[in-house]
Design goal:
The protein is of the alpha/beta class. The chain is 54% helix and 17% strand. Residues 442-451 have a biased composition (Polar residues).
Amino acid sequence: MRSLRVRLLLLSVGLLLALPANAVSLENLLERMDAGPEVKAARAEQRALAGERRERSEERGWSLFGGATAGRFQELEPTAGRVAYTGYGAQLGLRYPLLGTLRDRTEALVRASTAEERQKHQRELAETEQRLRLRSTYIDWWEAQQYRRLCRAIEPLASDELSLVRKRARTRDLRTSEQMLLEQRWSRRLDSCQRRAARGAELRYRLESLSGVSLPADARAESALLPLSPAATERWQSALRQHPLMAQQRSVLEGAQRVRRDRWYHDIDADFTLAQQFDWRNDIPGTGTGLVAGLRFEVPLRSLGSYQQNSRSNQRYHAARYELDATHNRLKRNLSDALAQYKQALAETRDQMRQVELSRRVESERQGRAQVDQEGSFMALRLARVQTADAMHDFIRSWRNTWQEETQLRLLAGYAETDTRYLGHQGLPWPGADARGESDPVTLSQSDQAGRQKNWSRAVYVWNSSRLLAPESRQGELNALEEAGFDTLHLGLSARQLANSQGLSQRLRQLLESAHARNLNVTLLLGEPSWLRPDKRHNLRDLIQRLAGLDFDGLHLDLEVEQLGWPVPDERLENWLATVAMAQQASPWPISLVSHHRWFAPDRDGLCIPCRLSAMGVESVSLMIYTTNQASLTERATAIATHWPDMAFRIVQSAEADLESANSWRGTPLKTLRSMERDWRQSMGTSGITGIEWQDWRNYQAIPEEDQP
């Protein structure tokens, strides 16, 4: 009976962990987290620097000046001789800086702009550090709860075990040293368990302070998957480029570049004035006036002979460039160290998991042996049970340490927190304090206790691909696309580009190689309404066959039947389907469509477009639902995805400037859009929506990062 009780107690721990009451996810706390004092201070400083930058900008233009004079004068005149009078004067005019004066004010503006930009990234760093503190506290809170549950399980077990030991010791069937050993082992384990569990209330209070969220009385922390194979250091370059420290230093470099060149006239302070002058004399009635234009300059004599071209500003530029490289190298070293520490911690955790399983097995074998050799196996079974408790205790601590190491990787990853490109595709689930053997890895892209959704794609339409195809601008454009968080590019080609057949193929191969090296998918984006007509359909087939030798990841067709007129008859829909079927037969790549959502509405009468597409094997569709009404967007998208579960849908949103504000997000800051995307992923990801696509790259780039302070 005692053995059965032990097993039930151990099993109950796992059940408690598997069914948490009122679970509070880390992701939910991060999304609802209020700005802390450091973040608020950084925001206030950013607003102050923005005001200073505006002041410096105004100083580069025309300025109003004025003045007044008064005095007793004695002047010599040809006829009157010496004339004494009291005079008064006033002047009001405009001044414009020139040469060195203008250069100095430009430098002041650049310094102010750079300071504002650096402060912006300093604020991002403060936000990242607050998120890190919240993550770390949440993990410690989770650990305290695990120890509290473990204590509840082993305290009655320890009481039973020690009662047996003392009973044996009283009958002298157990040595005193053996009694002391077991009492010391159980005492140490219970003390450690209770000490760590006692931190729960303190950590809960700290978590509420950091997040600004009041937690329910029965709130429970959720465990997370531990990534099994994070990417190697060289694969994290895109994440490092997004780091606020790198962005800070890039702003310094860009500022230095703007004033990099020194010229000989930059040492000459000069300005142009245009003023209206007024004069009064006590000996002459009336007012004298005059419009005066003036040019003033001043230059130190020493600088006339000691000018050195490109000295001061050029050296600042080189210093900023070297500091950018140094910052990148520091982050790279830190990342390499963090990866090594995480991998070591993960190996120790998996080893500790095996140790728990082994301890359980030894305990089971000792229990079985006790039925045969009751006297000889008594001490062995007692030690096996305390060893199992020790292993469970150490396993919780090991998991916590590995999870904390993972937060360092997330800190270095910046905002790419759930990107499987960096953290890998598989993760180790928390098996429960009794380590029931559920140690098989699971796919990170599947939902787990932490609320992760399945893979979520972020694509963008690149209709103007000239910068991507040009060798001199390709890497910079790919950097920008990667930093924006896109994993798929729908690449459009203009008629002029298609006319240069040989050169186009070579540039496309180079682009595809560069994009694939960054784990970016590139689809061929083709769209021309005339291809829907039977007599023009062959033009699409010929174009596909012409580019068939290139390693595109897919063919994305933008064939909008509405562009040939409204209403759309069934005949045109049949032509659309026939064109898609022809393209699928000719295409060496997987095919996907972009279409208005009306053709996939669950309640639509008439020709069943989804049925026909599924029959021909086309199951990937991007739904154009251009609306800034989030409730309407979610309702329409989830209704379609739920009604057609065999198809893979993505939503297309617009940032185009030529659409009405009700249909385009063009004025919404990127920070707000990123938050909304997280909400969309949460609300639509479980219904079958697999990603979002933005129309188009040129307009998306024009969206500001955030509202101007």
